[in-house]
Amino acid sequence: MFKNFFNLILLPEKFYKKFTDRIITLIIGVFALGIIDYIFSISEKLHSFFVDKTSVDLSKNIFYSLVVIVIFGIGDVVFFSFPVSDIIKRLKSDKDTNSEKSSQIKIMKVQILANCIIFIPTLVLTYLSNGVDPEKNIELSIIIMYVYLIIQIWLCAIITRGIKSAFEIGQRFKPLIFPIVFFWYYIVGMALNFVMEKLMGLVLV
């Protein structure tokens, strides 16, 4: 029962074993991740950036948005996957045949997949939270905060399962994967959110 439940929310382990290091699918995934990052960064300002704008300003905002999507799609996967891949390299058993480049690409794909899975639930929660006044609805704000945390744990659990499934990790090191993923994703997420907010404020009119 529990195995079926985890297979449903985290996907079966055999699914991740099929991941390859093909570049074309990675490029598509990076662009998709950039769009996800972009949507969440401007969810409250989308109307002001693209509605009631002159054709010149609208064209500029569309162009700069595409640039930002590419930059943050690449930044998200690079700043997460490279350090994590370096750690995984030290935890892999001798039976693992993945090269360093292949490992990095597969971790990027696992990360992208995880973000795509949680995209709709996070988008719905973000939409609902935008209409909540924290001062007037303290209890609801706390519930939303906990749901956000659960979604982040879900995200890291997907990445953890993907890494454990795609690589031959030493048995004694497997319990370390989730805290490594959770801690590093938290750091990367905070840094990217800060930079993205600043960048969006500078380039969009």
Describe the structure in your own words.
This is Yip1 domain-containing protein. It comes from Pseudobacteroides cellulosolvens ATCC 35603 = DSM 2933. The protein is globular, with a radius of gyration of 19 Å. Helices cover 80% and strands 0% of the residues. Helix 3 runs parallel beside helix 6 (100-130), helix 5 (55-91) crosses helix 6 and helix 6 packs antiparallel against helix 7. With 205 residues, it is mainly α. The mean pLDDT is 86. The protein has helices at 2-10, 13-17, 23-41, 46-50, 55-91, 100-130, 138-166, 174-203. It starts with a helix and ends with a helix. It has one domain (16-203). It is built from eight helices and no strands.
Summarize the structure.
The chain is mainly alpha-helical and 205 residues long. The chain has helices spanning 2-10, 13-17, 23-41, 46-50, 55-91, 100-130, 138-166, 174-203. The chain crosses the membrane at residues 23-42, 62-82, 110-128, 140-163, 175-196.
Write the layout of secondary structure elements.
Blueprint: H1 2-10, H2 13-17, H3 23-41, H4 46-50, H5 55-91, H6 100-130, H7 138-166, H8 174-203
Helix pairs in contact: 3-5, 3-6, 5-6, 5-8, 6-7, 7-8
Structural class: mainly alpha
- Overall geometry comes to globular
Order of helices and strands: HHHHHHHH
Please report the number of helical segments.
Answer: 8
Number of strands: 0
Count of spatially separate domains: 1
Q: What's the average pLDDT?
A: 86
Level of helix content? over 70%
**Radius of gyration from the CA trace?**
19 Å
Task: For the record, give the distance between the C-alpha atoms at the N and C termini, rounded to a whole number.
Answer: 52 Å
Largest sheet: none
> Unreliable segments (pLDDT under 50, ≥5 consecutive)?
none
Tell me the strand percentage band: under 5%
